Structures are given as structure tokens and as C-alpha cells.
Amino acid sequence: MKKLIVAASCALALIAGGASAQERNLRIAFDVPYEPFEYKDENGELTGFEVELAEAMCEEMNANCEFVIQAWDGMIPGLLARKFDLIMSSMSITPERAERVLFSEPYYNTPGGWFARNDFSSDVTDMDAMKGKTVGVQRGTTMDTYVTENMGGIVTIKRYTTADDMVLDLEGERLDAVFVDYPVGEQTILTKEGFKEVGESVKLGEGVGVAMRQRDADLAEEVNAALATLKEDGTYDEIMNKYFNYDIKM
Amino acid sequence: MPEFIAQWLNQNEIFTAMTIMEYWNGLVNTVQLVFLSLVIGLICAVPLAILRTVRNPFVSGPVWLYTYLFRGTPLLIQLYIIYYGLAQIPGIQETFWWEIFREPFYPALLAFALNTAAYTTEIIRGAIVSTPHGEIEAAKAYGMNWMMRMRRIVLPSAARRAVQAYSNEVIFMLHSSAIASVVTIVDLTGAARNIYSRFYAPFDAFIFVALCYMALTFILVFAFRKLENHLLKHQRPVTS
């Protein structure tokens, strides 16, 4: 009998040891489409800058990763409800978000850009010229916070859930200008006839980080280590240069 | 208990004077939008319901088509078509219509009023066609013409039968108005969404707004009960 117990506990220890040495399973959430960070290509395959970076990161961490598609509105609630373990969907680091989730070190930062129709001639930094103008932003983004704080009483702010709705209202002349994440503006606005970039782009916030649950501090350390390696060994630059002709590295 | 509430209010970052103000503005927008669309809807619905009961299909047909279209499609789609669709008409930006449809308020009001008018038309039509034959025959025997019959017999008795169904429509309209926030109107729901996305606190932001809607509904239910008591006085049992 004693032998049997010893044998059983040895077997259990083996199983447990084997499990910890095995690849761990991680689920990573993206909100698509958000070109060029995460979107589906012609074959319906998930791809983009963050998707490729996530793939490289998983390889570095020796983890078995599954990609989950989640709409932006339910991103943080979904993470907290354990529907997935990591968010790598261009989530900017803000103090409010940091109360709910644990961020890794930032892995990129893109500026916010001003876009308008070709007939727009005001200077966006001149508050007198902007007085009474209508500006569109995406609800809850760092661009929203910037416009709310700096131009709150001066311009009329309209908040949209999706960038598409906002661009439609810029086209329909309901908005004078929009302030969006630069790559999004470049992809969805500048590719159309009749629009231009106005003014200087603005560096906002602390950059974008991987978001995890507060209690997963160990995971955060691993993620930081993996990202640091990728940034050093050139893998990061290789992926970045595939999607951008400017520097977003942080 | 009050100490506990005071302590909680001091600790919370979400319900500050600023966000309460945002909710208040949202409440004003919701009430304005719903009240105006209900008034416009009811004013349109009464004549439409009468036309709908006319035997001539060239008169009742178009009204039937209108109520069928607006009851047959979701309000959200109607709002999208009116708000985004109108902006796509070439050259509309140069006409005076753009002064009205540029702001999201009027497209939303138009969509809501047309929608509630369609439902109310059908409610009133149902009440009109269920008028007891005896009442109409009696009115005819008194020598009343069509106009007088409508005014004195059919419409008052139809109103009594329609009021309960209509109170439902009013409450549905209040709750449907939550979709106004998709076209950038900051109504109650819009305020809650803004606050939610700023603080990432879905429970606090949405439960508070749900309580606001419940309070509004309670007022409506109370008002309709008073109205029913008044209109249906003759049905109550006689007490000494």
C-alpha cells in the first residue's frame, strides 16, 4: 500500500512537472478592423502590426497563443471576466485604465492627427480661429481626452463609437475637422479624394501597452522581458518597417 | 447608513458635480426628444387613423403602407437612413434643409416622430373599428352627420379604449430613445457611454442611468393611471 502511494505521488509530481514545462496557453484579444495594426487580409486571416508582434512575442515566451476578436466597448470587461488574458489592441496607457488593468511597458506610440476637407483653412492650434467649429473624436480615446481638456469650451465636440461613422460625418460636412490616431486617419481619410491633413500631429500620452489583469504580475514580467528582447534583436524593427514608413517604436 | 453613503460619495471618482451635470444635460435631451416626438406623433396619428378606417382603398392604402413600412423596420435602421442617408444626397449641404438636418437632433426627432406616429395610428385605428355598432346606430338615429359622430361618439369612446395601449407605446418610445446616442446626441444613454468610456466603470455608469429611466417610467405610469381614472370614471363600481 505504501509503495502504491509513493508511486502515485511520484506520478502526480511527474504530471505536474510536465505541465509546468509545457507551453502555456494564452488568449490575446484584438478589435478588428484597425488597420494597419490588426485586420483581416483577403483570405480572412488575422494580420497586422500588433498581430505579428503578438506572434513573435508568443514565440519568445514559448507560449501557445490563441487570438480572440473582441469589440472595443467590451475590451476591459472581457479581460476582467477572463474571456482572454491579454489585450494587444492599441490600448493607450492612461491612469484611468491603469486602475482597472495592469499594463506592460509601452511598445509603440503613434501621434494624433488633424484631418479635414480640402476647403478647411483654419489653424487648429489657434483657439480664436477654431471657436465654434465642430470637431469629431472617437469616444474614450486619448484624442478625446486631449480635445476635451484643451478645447472643451471652444469647439463643439462630437464623440463617435467607430471611426467609420466619424469619417462619414466629415464627408457629409457635419464636422469641420476630426482628431484621430494618425495611422487611422492616414488609412481611412487620406486615401479618399478631397481630404487633407491639417496642422501638426500631436504626441499624446504614454504610449500603447499590453493590458493584463492586475493579479497577473508574473505574466507582465514575462511580457516585458519578451518585448525588450524583440526590440533589441531587430525583430520589432523588421515588423514595424513592414507596416509603417515612420517610427512608432517606444 | 447616511454616513456610509457620505463616505462612499467622498471616495468615488465617478459621480462628481461634472458627471452629474453631464447626466442632467442628457436627461434634458432625452425628455425633449421623447416629448416632442410623442406630441408630433399623436397629432399626426389621429387624422391618419381616421383615414386608415375609410373604405376607399386609395385613401386607406397609403396610410396602411406607411404604418407597414415604419412598423416593419427597426427604429435604429430608420435613424441611420435619415441621419447618414440624408447627408449623402448630393448638394443638400447647399439648401436650407441642411440648416435643419446638419444637427443630429432634427433627424432623430423626425425618425422618432414618424415611428411613434405609425404605431399610434394602428392603436387608434384598432380602437375606432371596435366602436360598438349600437353607439353609431344611435348617433345616426339622432340625425348626427359623419363629422359630428366622429367628434362626439367615435373618437371619445376610442380614446378610452386606446389609452392603455398608448401608455405602453409612450414607455417604449422612452426606452427606444436610447439609440439617439449612436448619432452623437448626448442623451441619458450618451452621457452614460461617455462616462463609462472615461472611467471604465460599466456598472456605476449604466446602473445610474437605468435608475434615471426607471424614475421617468414611474412618472409616466403614474400620469397614465391618473388619466385612466379620469377617462374611465364611468366604469368604476358605484360607492356610496
From TrEMBL, chain A:
<keyword id="KW-0732">Signal</keyword>
<comment type="similarity">
    <text>Belongs to the bacterial solute-binding protein 3 family.</text>
</comment>
<dbReference type="GO" id="GO:0015276">
    <property type="term" value="F:ligand-gated monoatomic ion channel activity"/>
</dbReference>
<protein>
    <submittedName>
        <fullName>Nickel transporter</fullName>
    </submittedName>
</protein>
<feature type="signal peptide">
    <location>
        <begin position="1"/>
        <end position="21"/>
    </location>
</feature>
<dbReference type="InterPro" id="IPR018313">
    <property type="entry name" value="SBP_3_CS"/>
</dbReference>
<feature type="domain" description="Ionotropic glutamate receptor C-terminal">
    <location>
        <begin position="29"/>
        <end position="246"/>
    </location>
</feature>
<dbReference type="InterPro" id="IPR001320">
    <property type="entry name" value="Iontro_rcpt_C"/>
</dbReference>
<dbReference type="InterPro" id="IPR001638">
    <property type="entry name" value="Solute-binding_3/MltF_N"/>
</dbReference>
<dbReference type="GO" id="GO:0030313">
    <property type="term" value="C:cell envelope"/>
</dbReference>
<dbReference type="Pfam" id="PF00497">
    <property type="entry name" value="SBP_bac_3"/>
</dbReference>
<dbReference type="GO" id="GO:0016020">
    <property type="term" value="C:membrane"/>
</dbReference>
<feature type="domain" description="Solute-binding protein family 3/N-terminal">
    <location>
        <begin position="25"/>
        <end position="247"/>
    </location>
</feature>
UniProtKB/TrEMBL annotation, chain B:
<keyword id="KW-1133">Transmembrane helix</keyword>
<keyword id="KW-1003">Cell membrane</keyword>
<dbReference type="InterPro" id="IPR010065">
    <property type="entry name" value="AA_ABC_transptr_permease_3TM"/>
</dbReference>
<dbReference type="InterPro" id="IPR043429">
    <property type="entry name" value="ArtM/GltK/GlnP/TcyL/YhdX-like"/>
</dbReference>
<dbReference type="InterPro" id="IPR000515">
    <property type="entry name" value="MetI-like"/>
</dbReference>
<feature type="transmembrane region" description="Helical">
    <location>
        <begin position="205"/>
        <end position="224"/>
    </location>
</feature>
<protein>
    <recommendedName>
        <fullName>Arginine ABC transporter permease protein ArtM</fullName>
    </recommendedName>
</protein>
<keyword id="KW-0997">Cell inner membrane</keyword>
<feature type="transmembrane region" description="Helical">
    <location>
        <begin position="170"/>
        <end position="193"/>
    </location>
</feature>
<keyword id="KW-0812">Transmembrane</keyword>
<keyword id="KW-0472">Membrane</keyword>
<dbReference type="GO" id="GO:0043190">
    <property type="term" value="C:ATP-binding cassette (ABC) transporter complex"/>
</dbReference>
<dbReference type="GO" id="GO:0022857">
    <property type="term" value="F:transmembrane transporter activity"/>
</dbReference>
<keyword id="KW-0813">Transport</keyword>
<dbReference type="GO" id="GO:0006865">
    <property type="term" value="P:amino acid transport"/>
</dbReference>
<dbReference type="Pfam" id="PF00528">
    <property type="entry name" value="BPD_transp_1"/>
</dbReference>
<dbReference type="InterPro" id="IPR035906">
    <property type="entry name" value="MetI-like_sf"/>
</dbReference>
<feature type="domain" description="ABC transmembrane type-1">
    <location>
        <begin position="27"/>
        <end position="224"/>
    </location>
</feature>
<feature type="transmembrane region" description="Helical">
    <location>
        <begin position="31"/>
        <end position="51"/>
    </location>
</feature>
<keyword id="KW-0029">Amino-acid transport</keyword>
<feature type="transmembrane region" description="Helical">
    <location>
        <begin position="63"/>
        <end position="85"/>
    </location>
</feature>
<comment type="similarity">
    <text>Belongs to the binding-protein-dependent transport system permease family. HisMQ subfamily.</text>
</comment>
